[in-house]
Amino acid sequence: xxRLQNISRTRLLFMSTLFCAASSLILCxxxxxxxxxxxxxxxxxxxxxxxxxxxGDGNFREMFLDLKQDGENVTGxxxxxxxREIPISDGTLRxxxxxxxxxxxxxxQTRVVTYDGTVExxxxxxxxxxxxxxxxxxxxxxxxxxxxxxxxxxxxxxLHDVPDNGLARTPPMxxxxxxxxxxxxxxxxxxxxxxxxxxxxxxxxxxxxINIDDTWEGPRDASGNITSNLKFPDMKALADYVHSKxxxxxxxxxxxxxxxxxxxxxxxxxQQDANTYAAWGFDYLKYDWCSxxxxxxxxxxxxxYQKMGDALLKTGxxxxxxxxxxxxxxxWTWGAKVSGNLWRTTGDINDTWKRMADIxxxxxxxxxxxxxxxxxxxxxLEIGNGGMTNDEYKTHMSLWSLLAAPLLAGNDLRxxxxxxxxxxxNGEVIAIDQDPDGKFAKRISxxxxxxxxxxxxxxxxxxxxxxxxxxxxxxxxxxxxxxxxLTGKTIRARDLWKHADVPTSGDSYTATVPAHGAVxxxxxxxxx
Length: 528
Ligand code: GLA
What we know:
The structure is a single chain. This protein is of the alpha+beta class. The protein has four domains: 2-40; 47-148, Avidin-like (Lipocalin), CATH 2.40.128.30; 173-440, Aldolase class I (TIM Barrel), CATH 3.20.20.70; 443-527, Immunoglobulin-like (Sandwich). It contains twelve helices and 26 strands. The strands form five sheets. It has an eight-stranded antiparallel β-barrel. Strands 17-16-15-14-13-10-9-18 form an eight-stranded parallel beta sheet. A six-stranded antiparallel beta sheet has the order 19-20-21-26-23-24. A hairpin with a 2-residue loop joins strand 6 and strand 7. Helix 1 runs antiparallel to helix 2 (25-42), helix 10 packs parallel to helix 11 and helix 10 (390-402) packs parallel to helix 12 (427-433). The protein binds alpha-D-galactopyranose.
């Protein structure tokens, strides 16, 4: 009914505009003054609103609006919680039509979202539009700002050392849904990825985990048990399916009340959730700080992660524990103490040369903190997602392998090209990543140089040597044997991308490396 009233009001206003255009100003204002007054009276939107946008999986994304209307001008902010606010710009309310713009993120990675809607009494139907994405329709209703307050702080436990869970003796290898699918991942995709992991040869190359990232979560049931949402009808059946392929399966949560995508987190339900994951048959948990920052300080991170480390151990099921708190609080110094098998060392990667190179070439200072069972995680792979050249993806794979980083493919395994498959399944490169000694890589070249030389000692006494070119043009990159401790020896070098031995003579080796490319060698020496 309200909607009908609104439509007829809009029609009347449209007619009034036509009428006004075709008649004198006086006649117009006399004829439509009552309508204009009614409109103004009905559309004062000053106040606090809760915008709920259906995510299509049974959940709603929540955003809060604090609006101030002054005539046709609308100012204010959008909020995701206390102190998490962004001012709106370009705000107008004309004839019941609301419009404003929100700029998310920081330059150069900003995202400008336009909001347009209609005010219908105490409801605003609001559509958000971001270029290249489907517009999202939500409804805002008036509410109490108190709803934004996070739940009361549960004091974190006293610190103790959680026993090593004995897992991930080499860096975990698998697939994760986030980089390619983000919020769109569903049961069918995950099953398809498990199928493709086997049929593509990735399983044979060592990839094991099929990891579901954020947006699988539904609400909690009456007993507080976490459920999955409409995209994932039966988590136990899905885990059984993945296991039937000889693979393992991973899940995602947050120590905060909400995950980074705004879904249900594990706050106050840590042991209950760990038990649920174990009962469903999960083998891996990525635990992402996200909204925990509304409750805890960064100094609490170790204790907060320890709580889940203990909870996972208590389930009795072997579950790899992946910490995701973007490298805050020098996590590499305490990640192993909470039974963490891997810990993110940075913010999110994306499918660009700049971001991948910024992350990958800046991991050497903290490289010494890795050890068997406990790995630095410079984030998941972007190989095959289309934003980089194959040379750049080879650099990505070479660098991650030298760093003993987890190899979690982030592309669509069902449709990957032959080149992508070749990069991801290069057994000689993977062997560097998976070297059983877990020794760390060193950068030999100057930090500022565009010709980068990296070495890593391997179990069989040989050395992995990466020759990288960060420049935009091909250049010669040289490794001097004396720089990597190989003076006076007979050197044998194998190019792991060419799968061929390369001739060596003299006291160095020089390769012409393409722009943003890599040459990865395995170098063995014998006394003369
Ligand atoms: C954070 C993490 C990402 C991904 C998303 C999911 O940004 O760093 O890897 O898990 O959350 O919301």
